[in-house]
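Entry 14. Structure prediction run on the chain below.
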Amino acid sequence: MMVLNGDNHNIFYDLTPWEKAPYRLIGWWDMEEFAASKFYYLMLLLDRIEQDYIRSRKSLPPIDLDEDKRLELEKMFRPVEQECQKLTLRNSVCVIEDLRNVLYNWKSIQINTHQVAERIGEVRRSVKHEMEINLFMYIPPERAEYYQTWGEKKRANRKEEIPLFGGLVDTKFPSAAFDIIESGNCFAAGRFTACVFHLMNVLQIGLMVFAKKFLGIPTDRANWGPLLTDIQKNINNMNNDPNFNKSPTWREDQEIYSQISSGFFTFKNAWRNYTDHGRAKFTQEEAENIFRNVRDFMQRLATRF
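Output returned:
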């Protein structure tokens, strides 16, 4: 990534792990390996500069820096600037570069020990501020595998099916992929009610596919009640419908379809009605139970359609 600074110099930054792949989980080890040692080294460099130029002169009147001292101090700030670049502390880089320009232009700009102390304090405040505005959310390990990128990586390592609901559901219900992924992401992030809302959207897609199996059933109804009632009527009348009773397995199919219809009714009465009217609030345990039920149900539905 390239950033143009105020002096029209091009500064190249190595992106942080979370900038290279935003919205994926970063392990504590990766964060520590990238940030902790570098921040420690950065602050150590600032401490050394303060020790050499500020603390020893704390009780003395301000002293103008001569050419040698200014160039020596300017040179000491180069690794500080480099560390800020590695940490993508872009505002801090600008603050340091401004100080280095003042130190380097010793013929035209005067600076004393007290002013240097103020500038170092400004660098510290800038670094602290930029560290504070980079926020990270902790996700407990037991929920991490619900998160898309982390979970897919772990399942791939274990040679398991990568999609959260399994490969068959992913293939048979491709339009449900977004809500399946988001249900897992929301659960991982602790947004349990949002997780259930997405799960109900997954069921909605499954219901629409199920309804198309039965002639004359419109599939654009938002209200599950009338739609499921019509579906069940068609299931009950399968013995009189040549589109179904010509099959040698129609009685077995009728039983399976009845079970699927009953399953949708259960979801409707237990959770759909509450989420549809915005009244529901779900705990982690409730959301996880609903997640498992919806996943198992959609996997069963995928084997039939």
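The longest strand covers residues 2-4.
Filed with the rest of this week's runs.
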